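Holo prediction — iron/sulfur cluster.
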Amino acid sequence: MRIVALLKREYESWDAPAKRFEGAYRRTPFTIMVSVLLSFRTKDEVTLEAGKRLFALADTPYKMVNLDRVRIEEAIYPVGFYRRKAAAILEASSYIIENFGGEVPGSEEELLKIKGIGPKAAHIILESAFGEKTVAVDTHLHRILNMWGFIETSTPEESLEALKKRLTPEEQAGLNRLLVSFAQVICRPARPLCGECPVACCCPASRR
Ligand code: SF4
């Protein structure tokens, strides 16, 4: 995709919240999985700070299950649904200990058995924690790729299936991080900055 190649050239210059997770805390499959659980309907900036507070207390499933649920709630507040997420983090930690010896599983099939982990979350974990060349599709990727006419789908789930057919694993790798960052700094859902957009020339929705 030429448009993606153009964006990759600009990526380094963006100060996007999605890029700030690297190095923010000890990145392990477990902290990445918990971070994904925290991120649902929550801005990356808020998810990041909540993760830092929580992982300072517990960054393994064994340490996590020793925390009181209220302590987790206090650490992750103000992420959205923080009470439900605290319970989900405890449940997922127990499940991993009981079923996988305390290690986050590295297959989509097993990840989907963990309560709270859906296809998008599983693909983020597979790519970020296990280095798989795959793509996680959230509302940003679904919106942008349909807007460009690269795919024609109605839901993120359909977009995932379409992208798996159209893109090689190498082309899928990194696409989520690239387009989420792009959506945070330029192609924002409500007010896209088309005047600053490096791919306005190729975009059918350009407001330039
Ligand atoms: S031209 Fe505007 S709508 Fe199109 S990708 Fe760029 S920012 Fe988004």
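READOUT: The two ends are 22 Å apart (CA to CA).
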